[in-house]
Amino acid sequence: MNRTTVAATVALTAGAVLAGSAFASSAQAATPPTPTITAKGGFVMNNGTAKTLYGKAADTRRSTGSTTKIMTAKVVLAQKNLNLDAKVTVQKAYSDYIVSKTASSARLIVGDKVTVRQLLYGLMLPSGCDAAYALADKFGSGSTRAARVKSFIGKMNASAQSLGLKNTHFDSFDGIGSGSNYSTPRDLTKIASSAMKNSTFRTIVKTKSTKQKVTTKSGGYRYMSWSNSNAMLGSYTGMIGVKTGSGPTAKYCLVFAATRSGKTVIGTVLTSTSATTRTADAKKLLDYGFKK
């Protein structure tokens, strides 16, 4: 074998090794390692195709905390002939409720007139249970507040049924239930995916903070400032929502969505151990979802 042939053989072999390693690395990139999360339940899907990308106890019923408010907003936004600029007067009952439950609040002030749109911001950003109560009172039907609230929760359950969800039930408008307020990572992701079809919902849940002008009891005005409890907005590239949740039973929950290069990944983590681990769990699942 002459020197030229040897050189050509070596070059060919080296090329084959390089090609082989390139092939191996592309194969690895195609199947990223399945992430390990702290949360007891998790689910991720491609929002465009509804293809499941990840699941951990995805159909196990768990307490949902304030992620319940995704459905609260969805029911409001589904009302026929909805006027987002309609005014609602803040009642003492909403304020008393917050105090009695030591609940998260939009700090609504009794007697103020706020619009439905503003209540939705107060519901989804600071996770206002007072805003949730006001919306249930406004959009439920009945001659008493209790009847209207019951009617509204009925609409939440009807909406879940219309989405074909078998593992979701609501007994409250805000997640502070009496033991039978539950969903699953898969079901909550489907609720959020459906809610995200509404442009008003999308605009609200991707808002980091807002300052809203409301009318006071005396006819003047004040500004309400609300910040979004979703820490991933602005810290995770492409983050577009959706909602945090927490509670004694629910622990720490997050329904999340992000868009990169035209692909939207949406998912849920339920029963994580802290606000920090909830965020870390969601980040792992989004990273994984974008690679799949």
TrEMBL record:
Domain Peptidase S11 D-alanyl-D-alanine carboxypeptidase A N-terminal: 31-271
Gene Ontology terms, MF aspect: carboxypeptidase activity
Signal sequence coordinates: 1-29
SUPFAM superfamilies: beta-lactamase/transpeptidase-like
Keywords: Carboxypeptidase, Cell shape, Cell wall biogenesis/degradation, Hydrolase, Peptidoglycan synthesis, Protease, Signal
InterPro entries: Beta-lactam/transpept-like, Peptidase_S11, Peptidase_S11_N
EC number(s) on file: 3.4.-.-
Domain of life where this protein originates: Bacteria
Pfam families: Peptidase_S11
Family membership: Belongs to the peptidase S11 family.
Protein name listed in UniProt: D-alanyl-D-alanine carboxypeptidase family protein
